[in-house]
Write a structure and sequence with these properties.
Largest sheet: 8 strands, mixed
CATH topology of the largest domain: FAD/NAD(P)-binding domain
Oligomer: single chain
Radius of gyration: 21 Å
Bound molecules: flavin-adenine dinucleotide
Number of domains: 3
CATH class of the largest domain: Alpha Beta
CATH superfamily of the largest domain: FAD/NAD(P)-binding domain
Helix content: 25-40%
Strand content: 15-25%
């Protein structure tokens, strides 16, 4: 019998496996794919704070960035720049593979090509049943099966009802050397689109949207091609979903849910690597406590949820409300916001303060809304602004 069975060898699952195997526990990782890290459904942008806190990125960095250009629907441009590196663009497949290697070196056993269908909680442990008719018994289980997993729902932990779909392609570029983000309700309704150079000649282009993602990606590529930002229209898209809200409950007796499966993602940007790692760290501490005291009770496991909500709850709440506010903006209102930012210099002031950070957006959102205060009349949904400020 294993001490811990982890379902999913993504960033959250393999980090859990690494931490717990390092503590000497017997860990099994079940991954549905034969190849770790693929297919890639990620742009691979990691903030400097994450990079420094989790030293696992060696050999996976494609490029670094200290700036980004934001574009409004009519083409107004705001450049955010700091002197130091703000984010790293990593090769996500190589990162997942490297993390799994580190977990293996600590003794974690990977069982690839095993898709977990069911997790059954028994009196003396848990049983993970796979589509391939294998069973794995352990004292505890971690569900780290990413976006769209049905396992928490089967366990009675509910499901995530607010999601978006991302689409991305790799393209050839010439002459674009900064990250570009496009806010345009026609190109990426409710969300945003991006062009992220990964080298001098290659970039990832993508967007998030609630529906018609493939059509919007086609329109985005045509627009960028017309603007001579990308060299061709031929590319094979990958699609992936992102949860915008966490699960109501991420624990039960003997079981924890971590990462995208738990909805631990920034609702502002759809970035989930850092929050997934932070929550996996908390989850590993909870499981260490459970295994070392032989206490697998719901009470002990609830400590995980309390701890990660203490760390991320406010961010997720403010981010989620801001996300919905953004969805309701018309293009002309986005243009006005860009004009206000330019004329008041709020971005310069935020860039000088620690409130604007790649990974923590709550304070910057609240400060930005204060600047918008005098222009409230231009927004027909004043109530929403208020809700965020009191959130
Ligand atoms: C288009 C797009 C771009 C993104 N860009 C960024 C970015 O730039 N930066 C960032 O921080 N985040 C980004 N994200 C989000 C990021 O990819 C996720 O938050 C992150 O991968 C979550 O990690 P995870 O370990 O929870 O899940 P995953 O990485 O999805 O890993 C889950 C693993 O579980 C496996 N699995 C699934 N079901 C089962 C099962 N039943 N049994 C066994 N194995 C199973 C999967 O194959 C996978 O290996 C992006 C997402 C999308 C869609």
């Amino acid at each position: 019998m294993y001490d811990i069975a982890v379902a999913g060898a993504g960033v959250a699952g393999s980090y859990m496996a690494y931490r717990l195997a390092s503590l000497g526990y017997k860990v099994a990782v079940l991954e549905e794919h034969e190849k770790i890290g693929e297919p890639v459904q990620c742009t691979g942008i990691i903030g400097a704070e994450c990079f420094e806190r989790f030293p696992f990125f060696d050999g996976t960095v494609l490029s670094t960035t200290s700036s980004a250009k934001l574009f409004s629907p009519s083409g107004k441009e705001i450049r955010l720049h700091r002197d130091s590196v703000q984010a790293y663009i990593i090769n996500r497949a190589a990162f997942d593979l490297g993390l799994a290697e580190k977990a293996r070196e600590q003794g974690a056993q990977y069982h690839l090509g095993n898709r977990v269908n069911n997790v059954v909680v028994l009196d003396d442990g848990v049983m993970l049943e796979t589509e391939e008719q294998e069973t794995f018994k352990a004292k505890t289980a971690v569900i780290a099966t990413g976006f769209g997993t049905k396992i928490p729902q089967k366990l009675g932990l509910g499901s995530i009802d607010d999601i978006i779909i991302g689409a991305q392609v790799e393209v050839d570029i010439d002459g674009v050397n900064e990250i570009e983000v496009y806010f345009d309700q026609k190109l990426a309704p409710g969300f945003f689109a991006w062009l992220v150079p990964t080298s001098k000649h290659k970039a990832l282009v993508g967007l998030f949207s609630r529906k018609n993602t493939a059509r919007h990606l086609g329109d985005l590529l045509s627009t960028l091609f017309r603007q001579n930002k990308i060299a061709s229209l031929e590319a094979t898209p990958t699609y992936g979903g992102v949860p915008l809200r966490p699960l109501k409950r991420t624990y039960m007796e003997r079981v924890l849910v971590v990462g995208d499966a738990a909805g631990q993602v920034k609702p502002t940007t759809g970035g989930g690597v850092y929050y997934g790692l932070l929550c996996a760290e908390i989850a590993a501490e909870t499981l260490d406590q459970a295994l070392s005291t032989n206490d697998f009770s719901e009470r002990l496991f609830s400590g995980y949820e309390k701890a990660w909500r203490r760390k991320l709850g406010r961010e997720l709440r403010i981010g989620h409300r801001a996300r919905h506010l953004h969805e309701r903006l018309a293009n002309w209102q986005i243009d006005i916001i860009f004009s206000i930012i330019e004329s008041t210099g709020v971005h310069e002031s935020l860039l000088r303060s620690p409130e604007l950070s790649f990974d923590w957006h709550g304070d910057a959102i609240l400060k930005g809304l204060k600047y918008l205060g005098p222009w409230r009349r231009l927004f027909t949904f004043r109530g929403s602004l208020k809700i965020i400020q009191t959130g």
